[in-house]
Design brief:
Helices cover 47% and strands 20% of the residues. The protein is α+β, with helices and mostly antiparallel strands and 154 residues long.
Length: 154
């Protein structure tokens, strides 16, 4: 559990970084989502500048925030940044894509490749399919071209 003092430091630092980026403080919510994860939710009218292509800018801002907080707080914390529910919507989309593709693979008994994805997105797909007994998933390829392949089981 993150102490109230550390949560206050996190909130102050997050709001300061976003203030420097021109985002109003009332658009930012910082809260503990579990024992070690702090959820930062930002709402704005034009989020694309801060999300970037395929969420890359969002990921980079999160990385900068984590680096700043590591210097201020000695304990291990995880930070999850979401702007206008981009990350939540992306996770929902990936889970739906995994389920739909797995259903197709199970029905047609033919493997299918998903488009290349970063590691965090591939992990969401693998977790979404982990409890299914009719398909298996594995990552193939290298670097930017790494993707998930869903295969019929057995």
């Amino acid at each position: 559990m993150v102490s109230p003092e550390h949560l206050s430091i996190i909130e102050k630092e997050v709001k300061e970084v976003f203030a420097r980026l021109g985002v109003e403080n009332d658009a930012i919510q910082v809260q503990e989502s579990n024992d070690v994860t702090i959820a930062v939710r930002v709402t704005m009218t034009e989020p694309q500048l801060f999300i970037g292509e395929r969420g890359q800018t969002l990921f980079e801002i999160q990385h900068v925030l984590k680096s700043i907080l590591r210097k201020k707080i000695p304990e291990q914390i995880s930070l999850s940044l979401d702007i206008n529910d981009y990350r939540k919507n992306k996770e929902d989309y990936l889970r739906d894509l995994a389920k739909t593709t797995a259903d197709e693979v199970a029905l047609l008994k033919k493997e299918k490749e998903l488009p290349p994805m970063p590691p965090a997105e591939r992990r969401i797909v693998h977790i979404a399919l982990s409890e299914r007994s009719d398909v298996i998933s594995e990552s193939v390829g290298e670097g930017e071209e790494r993707r998930v392949v869903i295969k019929p089981k057995g």
